[in-house]
Amino acid sequence: MKDPKIIDIGVPPGSEGEPNRPEFFVPLSSRGVPRWLVLALGVLSFLHILNPTMGIIELIPDNLPIIGNLDEGVAFLLIMYAVRELVDQKSEN
Q1: pTM
Q2: 79: Cβ–Cβ under 8 A, 6 or more apart, which residues?
Q3: Which residue of 33, 34, 63, 88 has the fewest CB atoms within a 10 Å radius of its CB?
Q4: What per-residue string of b and e applies to 17-28 under the rule 16 or more CB within 10 Å gives b?
Q5: Integer Cα distance of 71 and 7 in angstroms
Q6: At what angle do helices 35-50 and 70-92 cross, to 10 degrees?
Q7: Which tens digits make up the pLDDT trace of 66-79?
Q8: 14 to each of 19, 26, 59, 88, how far by Cα in Å?
C-alpha cells in the first residue's frame, strides 16, 4: 500500500520516460506556406497592434461585442508564427 503522504508527480523532465509533447507553434513553412508570406503577415500584424484603430487594416470594428477583438487576437498569433519562423531560421544556420 502506498503512503498517502507521498504525491507522485511523474517522471522528471529530460528523462527517458518523458512522453513526446506536440509543439504548439510549428513553423508554417513546414506546412507549405512560403516563409516570406509568414514574415510579411507578421510585420503587418505588428503594425496593426501598434495602431489598432487604423482604418486600413481594421477588419472587425472593436465596438462589436465579443468578436470585436478577434482581429487583434489573430494578429498576435501571426506575430507568434513569424517569430517562430525567425527562430527556426536562426537554428538552421
Answers
A1: 0.66
A2: 42, 45, 46, 49
A3: 63
A4: eeeeeeeeeebb
A5: 43
A6: 130
A7: 787 788 888 899 99
A8: 10, 21, 44, 22
Amino acid at residue number 18: E
Q: Give the cell for residue 73.
A: 487576437
Q: How many residues does the chain have?
A: 93
Cell numbers placing 2: 502506498
Q: Residue 89 is placed in which grid cell?
A: 531560421
- Which pairs count as long-range contacts for 31-36, CB under 8 Å and 24+ apart, including other chains? 35/85, 35/89
Residue 58 is placed in which grid cell?
A: 481594421
C-alpha cell belonging to residue 72: 487583434
The 10s digit of each residue's pLDDT in 16-74 is 655 566 667 788 888 888 999 999 999 988 988 887 666 566 667 777 777 877 888 88
State the burial class of residue 59 (Cβ atoms within 10 Å of its Cβ: 0-12, 13-18, 19+). Answer: exposed
